[in-house]
């Protein structure tokens, strides 16, 4: 009896001691890939979530519309290929060090020296500190989207990295495990196999709302079944976008909310323009007209109201410079397809079109089957080929090895159409995963250059609208649908940037700025 | 020199040769399978120049033999290189993830032996009667479904519909435990936090049972079959004729010789769990080495593949040595045969 009482008392005391002293709000979310903490190496979605919360950038995308607003910078001016940014006063890093112009210069140089992640955005850019709080960027050549690309240049605490770098010139080991930013959240722990834990930075220069989560656990590599069970049991808050649509639907049926992020990319069926019969524009137009766009949209629907994509209106997703209006929604037209077939110099009955899909994205197999069925309606033979990503990336480096049709999701990494379209269609960038079309078209090149160097937004809008028209006319790609990322979430959390279009950033991952979220309970 | 010690030396020598062979084989296979590790590591946005730079840093543009030379030189210094998956030293990753898998596999092994052997003994002892039938049905059921199916079933039954056990991870978020050894059962006890220890054990139960279930069936079936065969030996008949108690006959005369083949298979099953645990680890979000191994294989992370495979191979060899020693201990014929080198 006494022994039992003692045991109970011990257990009770131990439980009390191990419980937190105050009630803190914890946000739990997951991503499939492991998040890379080093901002110079960040490239995918999980990396972006970490980067946008632990670090700050000079500018931020305007919420709910185009353009950018000052963030760490208080103002900027442009003069040809020179951009001058004045830093906001009184900003400090999480370490307490003041944020100065030399930190901006260091961040750019570190990014360029490591040559990883999205460093290619800053090729031909140099920076110079003009005093403590002014930094001047000089570009080798005019690049209109430069300000947009700064959303991918997080500012690193130079003094902290220098103090912890050891023999490692750029402190890679230190920054792979620790944060050195000024962001609204600090890194508490980082276990690449399990999770990154972040805590609210109460000294953040913009302040952090009371209702924002006190702690965030970004979990990695959870299975769909596990996420489903965790959310249902109230032990998880936001799923990754990679949850199968059936699981998303089941969660939505159970009362979960569906968050969305759109306007940053699209799903494309890319045609190898160097391989017969797709080197003939009429053959390509025939296939583009034969594709059943409406069924493709139905295949990605999650509920009656929410889908992982919206109908495509052309090469450029709606919301970006040069996008077509909704009256241009793509639709299957078999009569038109037959007319194009008649005009094609090849007899397509003599060919067997290879439609590939990426093994890691099972959804693409369904699209391949749909495409095969559409082509059969025109009497065109095709076969489906499953390619693991690694093999696909290797095969597309040579046009003769590149399949007739490749399926890809492509995003604008800065939100600007240049980072979506230049890599796909400019003749100087063939043979990458983005450009299995191997397109070489002088008019397309000219429009892309004009978009890159346009003096103002109106000029760029005109350049991209012309580009869109040209790409529709020569059809190197079947423009499947505009992508919308969908996340299932518990009702414990409110995420305006992913649920209210007027608060959306138009940049992948930025909707996950935890400081703008509210924990409801 | 004692026979057991001689056996140990011989087994260690063979194991070293096997380990070198495994390293050469995996080194070659990992580099032959399609896909450029540098391209995969740098992601879809990497430029041709970035990929070329990483390939040069990884010596991928040099002949295979030269690459193996670099690998051996680094391994001798205790350096397994950097993982392209986690961007950390592979040794650090292994040190962090291995304890989680060992903790899981050890408990699964204890469950497998603790339930499998007694069930086999009971089935053999009551062969042809209802306990035997019951054990055989149970064994068949557990052997015929893979661990990940059991993982999902157990999660549904005991975490979703009947929320008795936690769903994911090794410990609940509310506990902040200093991970001195990486074995959370040990770390929580070192911290004197009994509630946290209980929490860690509750996290271990479902994945360990899922991992052990097919082994339990295997051990039970094997033990039963061996004991049934032993029961037909003349010395058992003689023991029965002498009027020994059935329990004594089972324990002393039937079990010991029957254990030898069972031990070999149980040992192999135990070591195989290290590699096979990945699906169970994936379902229960268990941050272990098996899951890490699969993740690095999918990303063609050469250094991490080598490190993980070598650790799993080493575990196989160690467990085999232990099993060999146990068998030698149980069977004097094997023990003394080492004198003549047979």
How would you describe what is shown here?
The complex is a heterodimer of chains A (521) and B (342). Chain A has 521 residues and is an alpha+beta fold. Chain A has 2 domains: 26-238 and 490-519, 3-Layer(aba) Sandwich (D-Maltodextrin-Binding Protein, domain 2), CATH 3.40.190.10; 261-484, Dipeptide-binding Protein, domain 3, CATH 3.10.105. Helices cover 31% and strands 21% of the residues of chain A. Chain A is built from 16 helices and 18 strands. Chain A has helices at 2-18, 45-54, 101-114, 146-149, 158-164, 172-177, 224-232, 245-253, 281-290, 293-299, 334-343, 363-377, 389-395, 417-425, 442-453, 457-474, and strands spanning 26-31, 59-61, 68-70, 73-79, 82-87, 125-129, 134-139, 185-191, 195-200, 215-220, 257-271, 309-311, 352-358, 381-387, 405-411, 477-489, 493-494, 518-519. Chain A has a 4-stranded mixed sheet with strand order 1-10-9-8, covered by helices on one side. Chain A has a 4-stranded antiparallel sheet with strand order 4-5-7-6, covered by helices on one side. A 4-stranded antiparallel sheet of chain A has the order 12-16-11-15. In chain A, strand 6 (125-129) and strand 7 form a beta hairpin. The relative contact order of chain A is 0.15. By secondary structure, chain B is mainly α. Chain B has helices spanning 3-32, 37-42, 48-57, 64-76, 90-125, 130-144, 147-161, 184-190, 194-231, 234-241, 246-276, 278-283, 289-298, 302-330, 332-337. Chain B is globular. Chain B has a domain at 90-298: MetI-like fold, CATH 1.10.3720.10. Helices cover 76% and strands 0% of the residues of chain B. Classes of the chains: A alpha+beta (521), B mainly alpha (342). Chains A and B meet through helix 1, helix 6, helix 7 and helix 13 of A and helix 2, helix 3, helix 5, helix 7 and helix 9 of B.
